[in-house]
Write a structure and sequence with these properties.
This protein is an alpha/beta fold. It is built from 20 helices and eleven strands. Strands 1, 2, 3, 4, 5, 6, 7, 8, 9, 10 and 11 form an eleven-stranded mixed β-sheet that branches.
Length: about 600
Amino acid sequence: MSAALDFTESAFGPWNPGIRSPLPRELLALATILRPDNVYTDARYAEELSDLTGLDVTDVVAFRPQRLALHELLVRITADLSVPDGPKIEDLGINFREMTRVILGRYIEPRMPSIIAAYDALRTDIAARVEAEIDLLFTPSVAPPRKQRMMGLRALFARRREVPVQFDGDSDRGLRLIDHWRRAADIGDDAQRAASFALAKVVSALYARHGQMWGSRDFVASIAVDVACNQVAGEAIGRLIDPLIATAVHEQGYQLLPSQERPVVMNTKGPSASGKSTIRPLQRSLAGYIGVAWSEFALISPDIWRKQLIDYGSLGPHYKYAGAFAGDELAIVDRKLDQYIARKALRGIVPHLLIDRFRFDSFAPDSNEPGSNLLTRFGHVVYLFFLITPPASIVERAWKRGEELGRYKSVDDLLAHAVEAYSGMPQLFFTWVQRADKRVHFEFLDNSVSFGQRPRTAAFGWNDTLNVLDVKCLLDIDRYRRVKIDATSPEALYRDRSQLAPEQNVEFLRQCVERFSETNFADASTGRIYARVARGVPLWVDADALRHVDAETRAGLAAVAPTLFDRPPPAPDRPTFVVGAEKIHTLGTWGPQA
């Protein structure tokens, strides 16, 4: 038995799922980005290239045109077609993969020879452009003697096997060329932009790795060609399959997603296995409440792509690593989806979006605008949902998911993602609620409930008003960042449990109280407000109601607004409640009497 699965079956469970992180070295070749059916690049050579250049393995593999076609198809079904979402959580993935199977098998694969021919022609064009540009980097005095060349793709892949030699040219010239290529990546046709971008990326990586230019002319060129082809060839293949998908839509009766003048975006955020997909039926109900057809939403849940990218049943004893094997490629397709929807936005044809994915990057690499890297930016009205699930529950949920759906995750990966999620939530939250150009509704959901039960609403509101129903849950956002990612049991999750005290975990709550124009603290079962604060300044306190709050709430409030207790402003004459049409926009349970 492989060392990757060196446990006895009886020992498996939530805290010992039988897989390790990172992916064991002996299993790397099973990753979808290294399989010979998917890429031209040999797995061992890809590792060598990554080590020599400092580029990620995902950057140095060359995808085959057949695989690029699959990427583009996954993107287009997600962004352009209405995928039926049945009563079971898994129905979306099943229906999505069936649509993929039909379109790929009946409409795209019969045309694959012409797609491959187009790829070959484009690759040859890119290679010529890269070679013309790279001549500027290598002077005749230091360039190696030119050998008699083979022709076509065989030559491009053979030349990369040459042993790299140290560059002996002008270092300043190399840096100037990197700057030139970066600027050129924004001008010219698609192939020229891709070639310039690839050269800038590869050469700058070599400088960063070696402190100077390094490698032979053909070594550098071959990597740049691969980088450029992965980018521009995928887009070109996408354009080739567009009419094939259109034919499939007509013949199979699929529904195109209509473009929206004022798109609604529902964005669900939370750690892996926190329950993001399980609230989709509640979001479907919300769509009905606000008068938006659920069938007109692009349902963006990248995890449903995994079983299209890898055959779980083919992995034998390594089946528990199926999710990890497809992880890098899934992230690549996810970025392509972002780019595709951004292009749709430029044409004004964005549909409603439901986004369920683990990503907390808020800034695009080339932008200083908050939210510039997120699909949420395309929404006119935005609904944000934050799942607050205890780390121990996440581990339990992940094991249950693995047993039911075959997608397992190592415990340290789960806990690392939890730390990343709870650390990223505050910035993501404030990025959107401070936007004056969008109507933003948000809800924090306490998902510490038993599996299958409706989560509890911990806080909700619109852009400038926050209603807090559960102070402890907001404190948990700070608490859960403290978990040890190497914990092997619930008891070992925290190094110092004294750091879990309420007053030690008030940073997010304090930021909320200081930033919002109005913050209402209310009883979750009745909606009765017991304190109102405006940008950190208490406006009034219902002393009678405040006396009944639990110790956790009292400690949290005392830390962020001590005058609520020291010098409480008088309350209104009559009890005040969180009421009105706002409630129908929440998914979780809360008053009256919860």
